[in-house]
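Hi support team,

I submitted a single chain yesterday and got back a structure, but I'm not sure I'm reading the token output correctly. Could someone confirm the output below corresponds to the sequence I sent? I've pasted both exactly as they appear in my results page.

Thanks,
R.
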Amino acid sequence: MAGLLLAGIAWTVVSDVTAAPARAGTSTPTWNQLSPPMSPSVRASASMAYDAATGQTILFGGRSAGGGSLADTWDWDGTTWTELLPTTSPPASQAATMAYDSASGQLILFGGSGLTVAALNDTWDWNGTNWIELSPATSPTPRFEASMAYDAATGKIVLFGGYNDNPNHIAFTDTWTWNGETWKKLPHTGPKVGFATQMTFDASTQQLILFGGSDLNRYSTATWILNGNTWSVQHPSSKPSARGGTTIDYDPASSQVVLFAGANNNKFLNDTWAWDGSTWTKQSPTTSPPARSAASMVFDSTTSQLIVFGGQQTGGGGNELNDTWTYEP
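Hi R., thanks for writing in. Yes, this is the structure output for that exact sequence:
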């Protein structure tokens, strides 16, 4: 499918965290590879989020080694992966967005790129056992590689950007909110790069933070903050290199936003960065996962683990992964 930059992005969301202690973290960070007895098949661009209502870390879909879209649902319990067998599921998709809505208690999945269409704009809710398709009065246009996270300061899910390659190559730069029943488009005053970005809620500053991405012509190093309905670009003294396909989430253990990996064209990365509310600091973990893009990352509040799963190691198909890592700041 043309236009699947970096094979799509796997979206994560900060767990149900609305407050945080002061910034911390003086120990040497490290990544630890786990050896679960069961794992999802190799894939990139899967959707993963922590469901605070059910205490589950849910992974859905992604792109297989053969390039096809997947429609399986998995749960991580801190030790192993278990495939769930819901009676109804979203269509097979990759690069969909998923986030937990603390206000409504919904785990929301939106859009993605399917098998028979270039982009989707369906909205689904996971109830702990089954997927339920919702029928909002208004929805964003079909897209994949958008970014989405719950904004605890406003009590709404925020969706930004995305991409649609059919019939034209369109990188969206619009911002939407989900109020538990429908989507609402906000006035756009922010990022100019529309897809392959990553976004999460920084519980220490009570702000949504967005990094990187592409506008089809270039990769970005920009860091943006959303306060209510207003985007503002930041000017940190240091920052990660330009990239898309990174992973980002808030880590309560260090009270920092953690960013890992990504790619710029065919340069794949495995660096780790931390955001302290004003600047990015490159971390020096004793061990790191191999370079990759389009991985999935989320903080699992039940096990207090920052989890990374899968992704792709190089451009093109056939280089997908299914390894599981935890991060200790």
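A quick pointer for reading it: The mean pLDDT is 90. Let us know if anything else looks off.

Best,
Support desk
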